[in-house]
Amino acid sequence: MNGEHIPVLLGHVIDNLVGAGSRLFIDATIGGGGHAYHILERYKDIRVIGIDIDKDALEIAQRRLWLFKDRVTLVRGNFRDLKAILKTRGVSSFDAILFDLGLSTYQLMGNRGFSFHSEGPLDMRMDQREKLTAYDVVNRYTYGMLYSILKNFGEEKKASRIARMIVEERKKKPIATAEALSSVVCKVKKRRGRIHPATQTFQAIRMEVNNELHNIEAGIHGAIDMLLPGGRIGVISFHSLEDRLVKNIFRNSPGLLIHTKKPIAPDMVEVRNNPRARSAKLRIAEKI
Ligand SMILES: C[S@@+](CC[C@H](N)C(=O)[O-])C[C@H]1O[C@@H](n2cnc3c(N)ncnc32)[C@H](O)[C@@H]1O
Fold first, then answer.
1. Which residue range(s) make up the domain with 248?
2. Same domain, 216 and 102
């Protein structure tokens, strides 16, 4: 597939997260199946349960992991419900788990409102069964609600001016596409350097639509509870809010040995080959 998702920090995940004796690996964000594919290839005795909230992801993962189908179970679900998802499948513990947060390449390319240039509807739902879309947030939330999302979830310095501009512009006509939203933001913020001016706004709205921080917190707590002694949890995050949350959960969880005092970041070669990896940070901890 053109634009296939390239798994980030793959070598670190394979070498430091999954041990040679591991029997069950949970991929809480299976996405395109990239990490899972290489883990299944390297560890011949391992079984994988792959979870994703996005039905398109599971179709792609199923195709990619076809070769290993006897060792893979795919489940559509939200990792915030990890314990319940696994318990209904008779699983009460596992050896390793990965959360690779953020977006997959196919989501960015899929005209679902995630990318700045998407002309499709302003959607941004990872779970297509949920009701709240980015369109609702952008066109129906009050100034105060927009301001607080942009400030708290986007850490956007110009939150107030952007929120005001959104409210002004939508009076003329609804802001219906991602492209329209990014041009509203560009009226307030000019492009400087490589980062698109609407990056924080899109991040903030996506986090609101998908309830991301709440899910991450619930998912990681559930995972830590279910890890076997000696088992490892790895979380790859893509912005500072997520990374801080992961760091604090690890620090405040008793019985966890933290393997990454500083998070692991990609080297220059990886970033050159896969620019999406640029902001990735991997934290790993072990259950004692
Ligand atoms: C960066 S991609 C994972 C890519 C994957 N590691 C690979 O190598 O192909 C993140 C995936 O997490 C999924 N996701 C996000 N939030 C989720 C949640 N709360 N529960 C389950 N899956 C979620 C997204 O739908 C997306 O497919």
1. 10-106+212-287
2. yes
Same domain flag for 57 and 68: yes
HEC letters along the chain: CCCCCCCCCHHHHHHHHCCCCCCEEEECCCCCCHHHHHHHHHCCCCEEEEEECCHHHHHHHHHHCHHHHHHEEEEECCHHHHHHHHHCCCCCCEEEEEEECCCCHHHHHCCCCCCCCCCCECCCCCCCCCCCCHHHHHHHCCHHHHHHHHHHCCCCCCHHHHHHHHHHHHHHCCCCEHHHHHHHHHHHCCCCCCCCCCHHHHHHHHHHHHCHHHHHHHHHHHHHHHEEEEEEEEEEECCHHHHHHHHHHHHHCCCEEECCCCCECCCHHHHHHCHHHCCCEEEEEEEC
- Does some domain include residue 5? no
Q: Are residues 65 and 127 in the same domain?
A: no
CA of 155 to the centre of ligand 1 (A): 23
- 234 in ligand 1 pocket by Cβ < 6 Å? no
When divided into structural domains, the chain yields a total of 2
Task: Compute the average pLDDT of residues 243-262.
Answer: 97
Instruction: Tell me the pLDDT tens digit for each residue of 41-77.
Output: 999 999 999 999 999 999 999 999 999 999 999 999 9
CA of 116 to the centre of ligand 1 (A): 20
